[in-house]
Amino acid sequence: MKAIRRLTVRTVLPEPLRGLEELVLNLRWSWHHETLDLFRSVDPGLWESVQQDPVRLLGEVDPARLAALAEDRRFLRRLDAALDDLHDYLTSPRWYQSAGADGPAAIAYFSPEYGITAALPQYSGGLGILAGDHLKTASDLGVPIIGVGLLYRHGYFSQSLSPDGWQLEHYPAIDPNGLPLTLVREDDGAPVRVSIALPEGRVLNAQVWLARVGRVPLLLLDSDVEDNDPAARDVTDRLYGGGTEHRLLQEMLLGIGGVRAIRAYCRISGHPAPEVFHTNEGHAGFLGLERIREMIADHGLSFDEALEAVRAGTVFTTHTPVPAGIDRFPRELIGKYFGGSAALGEVPVDRVLSLGEETYPDGDRTVFNMAVMGMRLGQRVNGVSRLHGEVSREMFGGLWGGFDTDEVPIGSITNGVHAETWVAREIMDLAAREVPSIMEGHGWNGVLDVPESEIWRVRRILRERLVLDARRRLRASWKQRGASEAELAWIDEALDPDVLTIGFARRVPSYKRLTLMLRDPDRLRALLLDPERPVQIVIAGKAHPADEGGKRLIQDIVRFADSEDVRHRIVFLPDYDMALAQVMVAGCDVWMNNPLRPLEACGTSGMKAALNGGLNLSIRDGWWDEWYDGQNGWAIPSADGLSDPDRRDQLEAAALYELISDHVAVMFYDRDGAGLPRRWLEMVKHTLATLGPKVLATRMLRDYVRELYTPAARSARAMAADGYAGARELAAWKHRVIKAWPGVAVDHVESAGEESPHVGERLTVRAVVNLGDLKPEDVLVEAVYGRVDASDSIVSPSHLELTGEGGENGRIRYTGEIPLDRTGPFGYSVRVVPRHRLLAGPAELGLVALPPAPVGMTNGDLR
Ligand SMILES: *Cc1c(COP(=O)(O)O)cnc(C)c1O
């Protein structure tokens, strides 16, 4: 009989072992090798069979074994040392404490998914892994983040294969009591309740679980509580499952419920209230609406004033240029849930609706776009690599009216990865032994002096570990697909620990092109079976359950990999998760990535491979576009100008095969007298020395603190001071400026000295500007100048503020001197933009006034 409900009975640990429970309940174990060693020594066999999950370990370990450990002085000393180390980690000052700056007292970080450890399967892909790495790194650096997310009762699905290679999904129910979580309770012991009013008098309730990620608390909302009706109980059933309305409810719980959970947690624990709120992708965007509601209710602000106060302290990160990754809801649905006085009390629904409106030229006015709302609710917005920043400025530039794409206020911070999570222990040990300064975060050049034989020895160990793990997984998968043991003898010989190993593992949306390598199956077969320089490929990835196309791609790969002639050289390993990723990024010599440029916003798996001494073979997209330097791996040429997708695939696949056979394999098998591939190892060392410090999440987090969190905290304080005087002032000023702007014009521009200009001279510019009802202090009048291209556009313009020289009836004369600092085609223009000390930049309002016709010395050649 099948159980209708599942629960986990926790072991009662003997008194001397109680400390184990504390260790288990802090997820720092997931990146702390000494603690993992301690768990392993509780019962090494069981440790492997519970897949290194310490909660399961303590649940299943034999009480007699525990009784013995409770008397084992050596074990108890190690337990004490591990606890001491944890306490020290949790309390000693770290980077943020010594950074000294006026950083925020706390930052709330909202994400729909978190990848912290395989034992907490609450992630589907890169977004969640990044969120997990962000929290762990915040903990390591002492950055006071509180994470907020949802606890999905079935997590994301686990994947297996049917006999004919079709993806099958399973949704094993998780029991929060069997996870390293504790329920957040009021002082009287009652579980904290967060509630959101729904239409027709319904209510969505949730309890709140606390996961401790080192120093960082992570609050996970869970709607599976008895006071909910059955539909409400199911809101947090699955990650990215269900239809539109289900999704909306999840996002309301995350955003609105998440803010309420933080308020409860801070009240109970005494944790300082967040000054900055970080919206990690649009899904969490409703947090801004809840904060507007709070400001209106608690401080008597108007909607517009509250909006200014909230925006100032909100950071929004966009994570994808792929339309399917951006949530868009029908406007009626938003009207249904936010109308009346349901979810957000007195917040006017028409104002909510206008925040998510796609007001740009090709926008769809019938939808509510969560990314667009995110950009309107956050004064600071970023993409996740330099290229993705550019792509996002193009994509969303329409929200900022007349500004050139370059000036659209979307910046970028390139993602990074948490080394302690992703770097194999042997590599960590090698670094600690050979280049100890790296452990303190500097001296990466020391890598260049590490003996190549040492690196090669460790790489061999990691490759072999991958091969053994892959055989185990392959055997399990074939059995599950119905094969008998007798048919599987070949698996003992599948893959070879000395063959060049290429890895390809990621989610399977179409833009990642899982099957590009299959474009010419004979060519691929020849690479795999090359008698001199064979290649083996390890593949993994899950398709979204609703993505039939993605499942077909997996089936294509599986069918090819099933073929008898190549099955020892190409394998598909089901159920890609963090545990499999850890073995793959460490064991593969080459990490391959061939997305359709520029759709990969950043990509992080290649960074993990690089830190383990792997080399990247990738389309120049995301992070690789930024940091490929010609010597740290290979760039697959991209035909991204081509409009014919089939032809594009063909060209890019051909380039891929050629790179592998003529460059990658040649270099890998080019050995010296000692059997070492010298040129290869040079490349590995160069990669580690130069990419190492860049791809670390510590670099990323410091960038967030300096470029976004601290400025956002300053802005938020400026808004809040003196009873929100700043917010009131800015809202009133914006209202006045927006209303008066149609009356602002550059009436006339003239210059002296442009007849035969020479480099080094100055050009005097005079403009007459009509300010209409605005005052001179409301605007910035500036000359914009620089080199012009063939279409008379100013390329990377410089700006010079012009000085007002009086005037009458709102018409004011401005003047300034432009330095002619370079030869060649040169041009300038004059513009007026709003100016206020509480704006983050000139483009914030999307308002600009330009001269009626282009002016300036277009193509006036400087000599
Ligand atoms: C790192 C990682 C990802 C993200 O990889 P991309 O390169 O961004 O596609 C996805 N899933 C898992 C399990 C990972 O470890």
How would you characterize this protein structure?
With 863 residues, this protein is of the alpha/beta class. Strands 1, 2, 5, 6, 7, 8, 9, 10, 13 and 14 form a 10-stranded mixed beta sheet that branches. It has a 6-stranded parallel beta sheet with strand order 17-16-15-18-19-20, sandwiched between helices. It has 4 domains: 15-91, no CATH class; 95-416 and 705-721, Glycogen Phosphorylase B (Rossmann fold); 456-676, Glycogen Phosphorylase B (Rossmann fold, 3-Layer(aba) Sandwich), CATH 3.40.50.2000; 744-862, Immunoglobulin-like (Sandwich), CATH 2.60.40. The chain contains 27 helices and 28 strands. Helices cover 40% and strands 17% of the residues. The N and C termini lie far apart (90 Å). Pyridoxal-5'-phosphate binds at residues 125-126, 129, 506, 576-578, 581, 603-606, 608.
Quickly list its features.
binds pyridoxal-5'-phosphate; 28 strands; EC 2.4.1.1; carbohydrate metabolism; 6-stranded parallel β-sheet; Glycogen_phosphorylase_DUF3417; 27 helices; Rossmann fold; 10-stranded mixed β-sheet; 863 residues; alpha/beta
Question: What topology does this entry show?
Answer:
Layout lengths: L18 H7 L7 H10 L1 H6 L4 H7 L2 H7 L3 H19 L3 H5 L7 E4 L15 H16 L3 E6 L7 E4 L5 E4 L11 E2 L10 E4 L5 E11 L2 E7 L7 H4 L10 H26 L6 E5 L5 H14 L3 H10 L1 E4 L10 E3 H8 L10 H7 L11 E3 H8 L2 E4 L2 H11 L13 E3 L6 H4 L2 H10 L17 H29 L19 E6 L15 H9 L5 E6 L7 H15 L7 E3 L5 H10 L2 E4 L11 H7 L3 E5 L2 H6 L5 E4 L8 H24 L9 H18 L1 H44 L4 E8 L9 E9 L8 E9 L10 E4 L1 E6 L2 E9 L4 E11 L25 E3 L1
Parallel strand pairs: 1-2, 1-9, 2-8, 9-10, 10-13, 13-14, 15-16, 15-18, 16-17, 18-19, 19-20
Antiparallel strand pairs: 3-4, 5-7, 6-7, 7-8, 11-12, 21-22, 22-26, 23-24, 23-27, 25-26, 27-28
Helix pairs in contact: 1-6, 2-6, 8-27, 10-11, 11-12, 12-27, 13-14, 19-22, 22-23, 23-26
The structure holds pyridoxal-5'-phosphate (PLP).
